[in-house]
Amino acid sequence: METVSSRVNHPDPSLYNEDLAPVPKEKRTWDWINYSTIWMGMVHNIVSYELAASLLGMGMNVWQALSAVILSNIVLIAAIWLNSTAGTKYGLPFPVLIRASFGYHGAHFPVMIRAFVGIFWFAAQAYAGSKAVGAIISVIYPGWDSLGRIAFLGMGLQDWISFGVFWLLHAWVISHGMERVRHFEMWAGPLVIVLGFGLVGWAIRAAGGVGPLFSIQGTLSGGSFWNSFFLSVTGLIGVLATLVLNIPDLTRYSRSQKDQVVGQAIGLPVMMTVFAFMSIMITAGTIIAFGKPITNPVDILLQFHHPVVILLGAISLLVATLSVNIVANVVSPAYDLVNLLPKKLNFVKAGMLSIVIGLFFAPWLWYDNSSTIYTILGAIGGTLGPVAGIMITDYYWVRRRHYDISSLFSKQGDFSYVRGWNPHAYIAMAVGVVAALIGLFVPALSVVYTYNWFVGILVGGLVYTLLMRGELTKSVPTAREKVDTI
């Protein structure tokens, strides 16, 4: 088992509290099943469904859409595995580990960018999930939609009530900390698979067999197809780009490296591909049944006009979306805010603050604009990619897979740099972001934007390694320097 002592010598109070400290051995209880179900919960949700389904709406056929999903998952799991190892080894969250490359003060900026993105996605997922709440209430109260006549701040009263109920469900799960999150994920993740199989069965019946679902012709070819294909891959990566950074927030609880590697392999590439395959087949069924692609699963359920189907399906979607939102978009910003104010915040308080801030993103004003969503996804990938590249290269090449834990909680340790800032990391991040996003502003380089996440992570990591090449001459710690394993 690759874990090290959780003892921190003389930590600085401004950099340390119990939520940021290394997780002790007795609390590292998450096994491969936990990680499998957590990832099931994160990938089986309304937003993931819509993004996979929208590939058909863009003009791809079933096989082209599925290929985009598979490629994005292969890239994601590789990056996530690379950034998971340090979290498992040291029991530390992302906001602490990133101090190694950016410095104890310099880490605040990328941490807050990641928190901003996480809270943004919380708002988007909360709005998407609230539609399932509305579908459930509409079965119980037939006059539900009539409340839409009362509207304010861009949303009808029935939508405000749905959004409020879903928001309170998040608060209930968060209020009891990470253990409630773990237990919730154990049954929430697999639930939506049952709904997915049911809708796939409907799609096959509606199409008159499996063959017609795969015979739907795409409208893209040549250069337009490849541009759309790689832009879609980048967008799909952008959905989980925050997880590449903050995966240590979860793997710090792992019993071993093997548990997190095996569990994540099952939960992300395997289950995401299965879920996307379901999404694409169901959407193909809607094209045949209704003459147009319906990408929102709640809208599909409403087409059945059957109370039991709507009720059970909407409950499954609600639980699935709540699941991903807690793990991916509340846990991570919570640790980020604790890192910013360790003396005043703990995990629960920071989690509550995150979901309050999320209300101000007003997702109901922009969520249904697909072009806006993909532009945002691309910008997210381009911004976070360089940070991921810097973290990965720092751990594997600059630090040779060894961090001095006490220095991560000290202002005089290995990671103090220049008054707590590492200029090399900021230069590498700036170069990586410019390289990733330049295609947005220079038409002649628009093709670069198609690959912006790949460009960002590679350029950011390479520039950082070159700037820190002096650190590469440091020897691997001797046996005397290594801390005892537990």
From TrEMBL:
Compartments, record wording: Membrane
Keyword annotations from UniProtKB, A to Z: Membrane, Transmembrane, Transmembrane helix
Record-linked Gene3D superfamilies: Hydantoin permease
Keyword flag Membrane: yes
Topological category with respect to the lipid bilayer: Multi-pass membrane protein
Entries under InterPro entries matching the protein: NCS1, Pur-cyt_permease, Uracil/uridine/allantoin_perm
Transmembrane regions listed in the UniProt entry: 32-51, 63-82, 128-144, 150-174, 186-204, 224-245, 266-290, 310-335, 347-367, 373-398, 425-445, 451-467
Protein family membership: Belongs to the purine-cytosine permease (2.A.39) family.
Protein name: Allantoin permease
Source organism: Paenibacillus physcomitrellae
Gene: pucI
